[in-house]
Specification:
- By secondary structure, this protein is mostly beta strands.
- It is built from 2 helices and 32 strands.
Length: about 475
């Protein structure tokens, strides 16, 4: 098992990656470029960081090729393992598959594909690394003959996030720090290192690399949609090999990276029934069970100290039943079972949309404003003082002031573990809800962007003083 890098373990040590690009496979998003001329098709290195959001189905990370008979690609199979493959004139010249399972959506992985078909040692002609460790494939398949040319670096279509020979196998998740070095086969230590805590982390390497004719470095610091220095696909290597983007918008440039990992939803929990989109920030509830049983969804980080803020926008609350937003303690202990009887299970806090009622387990704590489609709900949870506040569209319920705890509700921990995470519950068997969670990287338009006191996150409303976005750097400091 290879574990992802959570990020933020030692904020004082070294290099920070500021941005990533969020891919949503339902939007058929990908990046593309056709080099102006062919370059070194035998020796090159591809490196990037990524966080997966969808676990089922095959998805391509990086591909090159004119058609299905002439192609080169690295992808994740539907089983969750890696595969690298190349074909020339429909003859397989490289195929290695059955690498480690990468089914964890809680953090970022680093991948390096290092190719040098001029090498006299067959095993050195194609090497793949995950988090600095060389992948041992269960099926080595075909190893390239010496001096084999591949589709990479030919003057044919290249894509990040989808196949080149068919509009399919779209990537879903986050991609950052994309390097391509034309003419050199580099070790993963050219791009990352092991830090003082034993974590694999990126390094500031741009000035140390010779990118070559078709080389590029994508940092995703711009938001334009044209293939130039102001675009999402701007090449900052100095080679000006800018990439075009398809179906992306400025909202897809986010700050969830390998050095500051943000909370998203958890699509691996056994009670999960929803359909996830937008890098695990949006869920449409699934229809299952009979009343009062419904659906629950949880965040993928658990907290037992600190003060935290997030926002939720239900774009469709759904008919019948009741949509509840809040936080849960039960997910951490693994004791959550199907059915929650309108939030009555202890270890759950629920803010109901239809009547504004706030429940702590089976206890009615009071009422807030009701909410409906496209309202933005605010949550502030103070785990240092066991308090929480809720609000709607910029106004806190019950005249609450989270910064000083005024009129906040009391959060009572139970025997489930005293670790809390945001949650959604939907008591309904016939009508779905669609809900957007903003943990600091919204997939919807923000009219007046607000960050926390550390400068992290992008929220619609002012983050209360002393409260923070749920991300690895803040957790390292306050969690």
């Amino acid at each position: 098992m290879v574990y992802p890098v959570i990020g933020g373990r030692d904020p004082s040590e070294g290099y920070d990656v500021s941005n990533s690009l969020r891919f949503n496979d339902d939007d058929s998003q990908y990046m593309y470029k056709t080099p102006g001329s062919a370059s070194n098709q035998r020796t090159w290195t591809f490196s990037c960081w990524f966080k997966r959001s969808v676990m089922g189905g095959a998805m391509n990370i990086w591909t090159a090729g004119a058609d299905v008979q002439n192609r080169c690609h690295i992808d994740i199979n539907s089983s969750g393992t890696f595969q690298v493959e190349a074909k020339n004139s429909n003859s397989t010249v490289l195929k290695h598959e059955g690498g480690p399972y990468l089914k964890d959506s809680t953090g970022h992985y680093h991948i390096v594909w290092r190719v040098d078909t001029t090498d006299g040692t067959a095993g050195n002609r194609s090497r793949v690394y995950i988090n600095g460790e060389q992948v041992t494939f269960s099926s080595t398949g075909t190893t390239p003959n010496q001096n084999t040319d591949m589709a990479v670096n030919d003057d044919v279509l290249h894509r990040i996030g989808a196949r080149t020979w068919a509009d399919e196998n779209y990537f879903d998740g986050y991609v950052s720090e994309v390097h391509f070095v034309d003419g050199s086969a580099l070790a993963p230590t050219s791009f990352a290192k092991t830090d003082s805590n034993g974590a694999w982390v990126p390094i500031d390497c741009k000035d140390d690399l010779t990118y070559g004719t078709n080389g590029f470095y994508l940092e995703f610091k711009q938001t334009g949609t044209s293939a130039n220095s102001s675009g999402i696909g701007a090449d900052t290597s100095g080679e000006d090999n800018h990439w075009s983007v398809d179906n992306f918008a400025s909202k897809d440039v986010v700050t969830d990276t390998c050095t500051n990992n943000f909370m998203t939803l958890n699509n691996l929990f056994t009670n999960t029934r929803g359909t996830f989109r937008e890098g695990l920030t949006q869920v449409t509830t699934g229809v299952q069970g009979s009343a009062p049983y419904g659906q629950v969804e949880f965040g993928n980080m658990f907290l037992n100290s600190g003060k935290w803020y997030w926002e939720v926008r239900p774009t469709t609350v759904g008919g019948g039943g009741s949509l509840g937003l809040g936080m849960s303690e039960r997910a951490y202990s693994g004791t959550y079972i199907n059915g929650h009887n309108n939030g009555g299970s202890s270890g759950n806090v629920r803010y109901n949309h239809a009547n504004g009622q706030i429940n702590m387990g089976a206890t009615d704590l009071g009422d807030g404003a009701t909410y409906t489609d496209n309202d933005i709900i605010m949550f502030a949870i103070d785990l240092d003082n066991s308090k929480f506040s809720t609000g709607k569209n910029g106004t806190w319920n019950n005249s609450q002031d989270p910064a000083n705890g005024t009129n906040a509700w009391t959060l009572t921990a139970t025997s489930y573990g005293d670790y809390w995470t945001p949650w959604l519950s939907k008591d309904d068997t016939s009508n779905n809800a669609t809900v957007d969670f903003n943990f600091g990287n919204p997939q919807f338009a923000i009219s007046s962007a607000q960050a926390d006191d550390n400068g992290y996150g992008r929220f619609e409303y002012d983050v209360p003083a002393g409260f923070y976005a749920i991300c690895s750097k803040n957790i390292a400091q306050y969690g």
